[in-house]
Structure formats: structure tokens, C-alpha cells
Amino acid sequence: MRPGEALSIWRAMAIGAVALILLPFVMQYYTLTVLVIYGMLGLSLGLVWGFGGILCFGQAAFYGLGAYSYAIAAVNIGESSVPFILGIVVPALFALVLGAMMFYGRLSDVYLGVITLVVTLIFFKFMNATAGSAHVIGDARLGGFNGIPGYQTLNVPGSPDDYLYDDRLYIVCAVALLLVYGLVRWLLASPFGRVSVGIRENELRAELLGYDVRARKTLLFAVGGAIAGLAGTLYASWAEIVTPGLFSLGQSAEIIIWCIVGGLGTLAGPIFGAVALGYLKFLLGQQSMVDNSIVLGLILVLVVLLLPRGIVPTIRDLFFRTFGRRRRRSRRPARRQDNAS
Amino acid sequence: MDLAAVILVEILYAVASLVLIGAGLAVVFGMMRVINLAHGEFMMMGGYATIVAVNLGINVYVAMIIVAPIVVGLIGLVVERLVIRHLYGRLVDTMLATWGLSLLFIGLVTMIFGNTTTGISTPISGLTIGAYQINGYNFFIIVVAVILLLAVFAVLRWTRVGLVARGTMQRSDIASAIGHNTSRIYMVTFVAGSALAGLAGGILAPLVGLVPSSGGAYIAKAFITVIVGGPSIIAGLMSSAGLLGVVAQIFTFAATPVVGEVALLIAAVILLRLLPQGITGRFLKGRL
Predict the structure, then answer these.
(1) Considering the entire predicted model, what is its pTM?
(2) To which H or E segment does residue B128 belong?
(3) Which end of chain B is more exposed for a tag (fewer CB within 10 A), N or C?
């Protein structure tokens, strides 16, 4: 870890904590909780794409898998501790297997995008077709298009009747987001993270220096899958129903839009993008003048054309230029030199 | 015997519809290395153009084969001039921008036509083979797909426009040095790809209940067919549509349509794992 890195991580977490404490004064817990969950989902792709250079079109697969794992396990077990862990472990293992298949096959860019997209579609099609009593895991009916309702939501570990909901669920999600953010920052500051960024910059060079690129990419992909799975688990507890819509193309698209709008190559960017666009979607949902997707689509096109580096890096550069501290600038997000923020 | 004939027709139909769905994307991706994720929405708008034209009293074939490609081609022209031309050479950025466009189109169409299912009836009646009934329209789709492939091949192979276009795609700097306007060639290619998407949308419109989000069902199939096919336009499209269509139909007959769709997707994943550059990245290299 570079000198000053630890301090910078603590400072960023403190700023995040203050924001998470202040936000409930202006928004309801119910809305805010899902925004925080979106933030975590954005973070997962921000890590894999922004720092690993792996453009995953199917981050929704891990999100949905986490939610479904949690729901199925919760129906069967009742108490939420084991389902919670399964909701993280199952998508992580799945990401590990999928990643190994892709990266040991030396697939890259577009082809990677197709495979992750296809896998998400397989889940979507399969889950939609699981109506009827033939599709059962333990006591849980998969329920096809209607999804799985009525499972045990998160409870205080050990006491199944003590549900975590509303403000308490918000606190759980907020703390989880802060912890995950801190851990990811730490991971990126560790040798593993530094090499991952090196691989993103130049895969061949990293390989010639003796690093096992395939194993490292696979591992980073699995970490991203675990975080997305955690987001899915929390979402399942918030929504109290899981449906195949979690695996839809629209969901995957949204995650990518968050990252692009917020700013790739940063961690704060995707979180900010997710929260801001999630809130915008919520506001747009309350009116019926303009269709929701017109606005989202327009934002995506305009950001790609006009702000290709995303909002957070642009603002940060503006900030540092105004206040005189020198920062290395680069035009394209994929070529960024500096580390997380 | 009757069953075999029915299965054969159904397989040919599955392949032909994959060819139709993929053709526009294949031209744009194969020639310009641009992945148009709004392709599905172009097809959806082709379908709507057809339905509107038919409701206005225009002959259904005219609506499908002439009106739909023209309307969508014009939309493609606007899109290319406003968005795509700024992003050539930036593969990921074009994908994201066109994804944004696809959302935008879904929203616009929803606002204009509402979120309801519309459709027209198939213009060709059913056909009886022995004890089985098959959709006569399937034959029309097979014929159109064959003509389409021949036409694209003929234009690229034997006309001056096709020659210039192929040259530009290989070395745009040389083409520009000997006096061709590359920006205009890219524009024409993109419009041609859009028109093909509109044609496909129009022709498939009588078979599906059209909703504004129908494009999503097409884009994945189109994307998979084109990427599995690899760099050559015609050879890639034919080989991958052939392979994936056969796999999907066999599993559809053996089990259910859902299993067939999933089998298609799994086949695509396995193929890409084995041939990361697509089928024509390994075989039939350098063909059209």
C-alpha cells in the first residue's frame, strides 16, 4: 500500500458515512434503501469494468442469482443467516466458474460481452419458464414469471422473529455499502489490485512480467460477482419478492449506464451514478408525461458523446484545477493512471 | 414422412429467420466494426411502420418490402449523422450509445403507440401436409432470406459500390487518398444496415404481436448470430444461422420451445469458447 493510501480510504469512508447519515433527513428510508443497494450493484461493475477492464454485460445475472439464492434458501430454512451467506457465495462461485471458462479461453471484449449477455438471457428465459409445480427446489416453488414471494426477510441473526426492515434495513445496507467500499479500496491498493489495474492497461505486458493474467481476472470477476450477489440478497430482503425481471436485459443495461454516467475508473462514480439515476427513475416514475426510458436513453447517449469520462472524474478534475492541486489528466477513461477515489 | 417434411420446413424457417434478424447487424458489424445495439428497436420500428402502412390501406407486401426499409433507413440516416459518426473506432462507446438509443426508441414508440400489443394477420394461409398443418408464411420467409443473401452478396461482389465499400472497410485511409468520401460510404453502409433491419422487422411483423419492447427479443439473437458468425458477412451469417437454427429447432421438437431457445444460447456460448473469433475467424477466412 502506498503511503497515505490508508488515510485516503478512511477519509473517503468518513465522507460516505456522513452522506449516508444525512440522506434520511431528505428521503424516505424505503426509497433510500433501494438506492443504497443500487449503489452497491454499481460498485460491483465499477470494480470489474473500471479496474479490471472486463466489460460484463451480465452483471444482472449475479444480482438475480444472489436474490434467488437468498429467497430459495430462506423459504427452505426460515432463519436468514445461512440464506444471506448463500446469497453471496452462490453468485461468487458461479462467477468463478463462468470467469474461468471465459478467461482461460482467452476471450476478450466483444466476445466477453456476448457470453455474459447470453448467460443472463439463459437465466431470464429459464426463470420465466419455471411456472408450475415441476420446478421446485426444496419447499420453494420457482414460480416462473410471478417469481417467489413470501419468504423470510432479513432478521437479527439467531432470532427469526426480529425482522430488519425500514430504518434498520437501511442501516444494514448503508453499513454494508461502506464496508464493501472500504474493502474494495483496500483490495485495489493491495498488490493484487495494482496488478489488476496493470492487466487492464496492458494484458500482454503483465503476462510477460510473469503474472498469471487468467487466474487474476477470474478472481476479480468472482469478487465482482460476490458484491453483486450481496446487492441482490439485500434487494430480495427489501422487495420481499424476487422475479425474473432481475435477470432482464434492462437491468443489465441500467448497471452499465450507472457506471458510464458516474465515471469509469473510479469507485465513487458508479455509486454516485447508481444513486442519482435510481432517484431520477423514481422521480420520473411519479409522472406520466414523459416515458421513463426516453430520459434514461437520452442521458446515456449524451454522456457517451459529451462526457465520455463520466460525471465524477470530470467534476473532480474541475475541482482540483480550481483549487490548484495538480493531477495527472488523461482523455480516455480506459487509460487512466491514478487510483480509486 | 410427413413429420420429416414438417421438421425440415421448420428448421429452414428457423435458419431463415435468424438470417433475416442478423442481416442488418452483420452488414454494420462486418463492414464497419460497429455494434448497433439499437438493431432490435430498428426492427421493431420496421414492424410498426408496416402495421401503420397496412392500416392506411397500403398492400401488405408493399408495406413490408418497401415502406418499412425506407422508414427505418431514414431513421438510421439521422442516427448515423447525429450519433454514430462521432464514435467510429470506439467499439465500446458505440455499443453504449446505441444502447441508449434503443431505450430512447422504446420510450418514443411507447409514447406514440402506447404499451399495447398490435399486429396484422399473415397474408398467406396455412398449408396441410398429411396430418400436419404448417404456416404458409414460413415459405415466404425462407424465400425472402435466400433472396436477401443473394442480393447482399451480389451488391458487395459485383457492383462498383460494393467494391468501394469493401475497400473502405479494409483501408479507409487508402480509399480516402484515392478520392473516395469515406464518411459518406460509412453513412450509406449504416443506412443500408438499418434498412435491412427495417425489412426484417416488417417481414416478421405478421408473426408476432408487436409491443414497443419487442426489440429486446431480436437483439440478443441478432447479436449472437453475428458474433458467432465472425468477420465474414455472408459466410458467417449463413454458417452461424444454419448451426444455431438447427440446434434450436431440434431441441424445440425434442422438448419445448423454451428448451430450444436455451439450447441456442448454450450452443452459442460453447461455440464462442471453442472458436473465439467466430466461425469464419477459423474457417472460410477472407470470404465475403
Answers:
(1) 0.84
(2) strand B127-129
(3) N
